[in-house]
Amino acid sequence: MTWLDPEPFLRGVAWRDAKGRPLRADPDDLARLPWDTAQRAALPIGVRLEFTADGASAVEIRYRAELPAPTGDLRALAHTFALWADGRRVRETAVTPADEAVAVLELPPGGGPFTVHPPQECAPVVLGLRARGGTLAPAPRGPRWLVHGDSITEGWWSTRPAHAWPAVAGRALGLETVNLGYAGAARGELATAQQLASLPADVLTLAFGTNCWSGVPSSPELLYETTRAFLALVRRGHPRTPLLLLSPLRHPAAEHTPNALGATLGALRAAMESAARDRAADGDSRLHVLPGRDLLTAADLADGLHPNDDGHRKIAGAVARALRAQL
């Protein structure tokens, strides 16, 4: 059977580079971004395939790994593809790392809709897909949800891409999640705000700020103004789109510890929340704040900062409740 063009089946794609590869930042505007943002944007975090099946026993996915296959003992780190249906994982298959390969996933009865989460770490480019013994069709698209944040939004320390909080919340709400989380970055870069404004969106969530305590230190006064400016630029492209600001989650080591400018994470969090609430009070009635401090406990953190799977589920539940009220 002929390989199908993957484009109608792909979800979570923000931009594409000159070679057609998914990119999570505007390829024509990379020069204005910090190097770490541009580097993380090259990974297809959250990009997935969604389809329905008629009479098919399996789906075959042909892909190319943009990052080279490991050598030596690291070749045991297989490329893992996960099949999801009805909000749960129903299959996984492991493919021996190679520059180009085919993953095969058996399909349960029922026809879907199905979602396949590829292995993000090898930056796979899906070249084609096809059904065994039946046909495939693209699944209907849900409202488009842009989620901007840092490594926590990327899904660090979740055991699978599908367990990251944006993926979990997106499934719960039936949204097409576009993950624009940049590990180590997301410090309120105004170029990123302008890029968010340029993308189509039905709902937006901003979840940055933690790296303003450490990576590039900020003060409460500076972060207040940065948040106001960031929101103003996003609103140039999305003046009435529901927008949720999730303030920084609890980080025990930073809560009461001054950074290089003397600011604790608690003070920075308060500044971000105040900036958003002040804008809402000025007339932005579709802007809402979800305070992040009390969403997790120490037991929900895998390394004292990043959530484990339980932590990601808790964040997803809180975000889903907040967004459901807006949607």
Give a written overview of the molecule.
With 327 residues, this protein is an alpha/beta fold. Helix content is 25%, strand content 26%. It has helices at residues 35-41, 151-154, 165-173, 190-198, 220-237, 265-281, 309-326, and strands at 10-11, 15-16, 22-23, 48-54, 58-65, 79-85, 88-95, 100-106, 114-117, 124-132, 135-138, 144-149, 176-181, 203-207, 243-246, 287-290. The strands form 4 sheets. Strands 1, 4, 6, 7, 9 and 11 form a 6-stranded antiparallel beta sheet that branches. α5 crosses α6 (265-281).
What is the element layout, followed by pairings?
Elements: E1 10-11, E2 15-16, E3 22-23, H1 35-41, E4 48-54, E5 58-65, E6 79-85, E7 88-95, E8 100-106, E9 114-117, E10 124-132, E11 135-138, E12 144-149, H2 151-154, H3 165-173, E13 176-181, H4 190-198, E14 203-207, H5 220-237, E15 243-246, H6 265-281, E16 287-290, H7 309-326
Parallel strand pairs: 12-13, 12-14, 14-15, 15-16
Antiparallel strand pairs: 1-4, 2-3, 4-9, 4-11, 5-8, 5-10, 6-7, 6-9
Helix pairs in contact: 3-7, 4-5, 5-6
Number of helical elements? 7
Tally the beta strands: 16
Coarse morphology = globular
Give the helices and strands as they follow along the chain: EEEHEEEEEEEEEHHEHEHEHEH
SS-derived structural category = alpha/beta
Radius of gyration: 20 Å
Kindly report how far apart the N and C termini lie: 41 Å
Strand content: 25-35%
What's the short version?
The chain is of the alpha/beta class and about 325 residues long. The protein contains 7 helices and 16 strands. It is globular, with a radius of gyration of 20 Å.
